[in-house]
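User: Can you help me understand a structure? I only have the sequence.
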Amino acid sequence: MSSPFPGMNPYLEHPNGWAGFHLGMAVALSDELTPQIAPLWYAELVPTEYPFPAGSGERLQRQLERIGERVRIPARVEALRLPSVQIKSVDADETMTTIELRNPWNKSIPTHRDACQRKWQRFMEARVHFVEIDLLRGGQRTPWGHAPQCEYAVTVSRWEARPTADYWPIRLRERLPIIPVPLREGEPEPTLDLQSLLHRVYDAAGY
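Assistant: Let's start by predicting it. Here is the structure, written out as tokens:
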């Protein structure tokens, strides 16, 4: 059965289950783009690592017992790897467009949030289109100027149009939009029906 909500399913926002949903959406985005952009372009899943100290969340720091003595293991750094989608050219391996799904950690943990903002700045200064999909009500939203209040949001930033960008404010009960994904100027733009993709992920995972 598809998600019973008309738009984003708020139960999917919980951090304990977000990683699975994030991965499913990233794969669905890539799969949806591939037939639309071939043969000149391809979609690649690019993981970003979010480190956490052991003991945060459900994992606890452990002690290691060795023969004749007891030693304490230093706090282990655990990492969560979540993918973004990059559209690259087949001939030159040039990155044309990056699609980012916001997550609870890069919206709430200051170090991850700062790293995310530095990455956005690099994109903004390069000739790379940037698509941000924010399906989380919690945490700090990207501080775009003049953005209206909303529960969720999608931003499509074409490098040649900066500093302006296309913006979709989304309310809790609204259907997720169909968005264009920019490539080279003058080329047909593939589209992503975010609501249909959410239902696809929801059904495939058996939520």
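Now, to help you interpret it: The chain has one domain: 15-52+81-205. Strands lie at 41-53, 63-66, 69-72, 77-89, 95-101, 129-134, 152-157, 166-170, 178-180, 191-193. Let me know which part you'd like to focus on.
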